[in-house]
Amino acid sequence: MSGKLLSNQALCSKQALRILILALLVSTTSTYASARTSDATAGIKDTTLRLLTARVNDQPFDSATRMLQTASDKLLVPAAALKRWGLTLPDGVAPTKHNGQIYYPLDAFGNLDWSIDESTQTLVIQAGVDRFADTHVDLDADDYTAPRNSTTGGFINYDLLFEGREAGTNNTSGTFEFGGFNSWGVATTTLLARNRHRNDGVVRLNTTLRHDEPGSMRTLTLGDTFSHAGSWGRTVQYAGIQWGTNFDTRPDFTTYPRPAVSGEATVPSTVEVFANDRRRGGSQVGAGPFSVRDIPVTTGANQVQVVTTDVLGRERVLTRSFYASQSLLQSGLHDYTYEAGAIRENYSRKSNDYGRGFASATHRLGLSQTLTSGFRLEALEDQQTAGISSAWLPDPRLGVITAAVAGSHSSHAGNGSLMQIGF
């Protein structure tokens, strides 16, 4: 009996010990959670709500903003307001959250001074240009509007010629074009009719089906067309298929690189851009760094000037030299043509006289704003040719240097090579 009692007492002691340990753990966890909560809210204890307007580098912002001022006179500003004022958020500074809104202390910003004008309830900030986000001014920012799909239709063009001579020999000729179109593309055929000595009759000139994609600036051509020569090839007329870029579908698009100029404004300013003494555009910029991109210039040597005028009327002029060339492509821009078919012979004399088959590929790529490179391949039944080409702008004062190297093999003429360099 006494043994069983001792056993029950030992069991109760063990249960009591477990309960005591569990209570200590809960108490410790609660204390730790309380400490963490206290640390998270330490930055916003004893704060005063301030409703202030702002003036940043002499630029007023009239809408009032809810800010928090601590007992140590530190000012916490909402992240949304900082972005609205054009200021970049400080790196490595932990934000403070209050009532679901993110705040940053202004004292954490380097190269920035602030004060509160109590008479007008205005926060006055003077910040260095490195504290502001970049402002980008794009002088070619018009949105592209795709053409509407065409309805189904057709057309006829003609050109007639009559020649009368004293000897009584008259010549009559005319060219006729018949075409039809719908939302997919355009189909055309051209004819030549003649009434001349030994040359009477009608000859078919070209028959073509063409599909344009202005959005991607590409064109598919089926039928009679001209090959793309590239920088060192030759153009031939042929019937077949051609697929490649066609920048003519976008008259507003410029293929060659255009200048970009960067600068800084300590206060809100007006930026005007001149190219060759002709005004090309302008914009208002806030305080901080700015860049002006896609300045319209003509091919050849250009002088670009950026005139910055601040709110006090002070002017600064930044001048840059720039060289524009059609030989260069914008960085990342592709220009290519892939084609195959049969070469046309006896054009304007016979309607359907086609000779050797061929295939060719031409592709160029803008590797940077100053370097464009590409290749060209040609293949006929008895001749193969391959080559590469480049265009380089080492300095705006020197102009563009072009170079090409190609080699060929023919079963009749053997091997051949070509080297070109231009300036």
Shape: elongated
Uncertain spans? 1-12, 19-43
Average pLDDT for all residues: 85
Binned, the helix content reads 10-25%
Under CATH at level 1, the class of the largest domain stands as: Mainly Beta
Number of helices: 2
Known CATH architecture of the largest domain: Beta Barrel
Q: For the largest beta sheet, what order do the strands appear in spatially?
A: 9-10-11-12-13-14-21-22-23-24-25-26
Q: What gap, in angstroms, lies between the N and C termini?
A: 116 Å
Element string (H = helix, E = strand): HEEEHEEEEEEEEEEEEEEEEEEEEEEE
Structural class: mainly beta
Largest β sheet strand count, sense and barrel closure:
12 strands, antiparallel
**Count of domains:** 4
Number of strands: 26
CATH third-tier fold name of the largest domain: Porin
Percent in strands: over 45%
Short description:
This protein has 423 residues and is mostly beta strands. It is 11% helix and 53% strand. A hairpin with a 4-residue loop joins strand 12 and strand 13.
Essential attributes:
elongated, 2 helices, 53% strand, 12-stranded antiparallel β-sheet, 4 domains, 423 residues, Ubiquitin-like (UB roll), mainly beta, 7-stranded mixed β-sheet, disordered N terminus, Porin
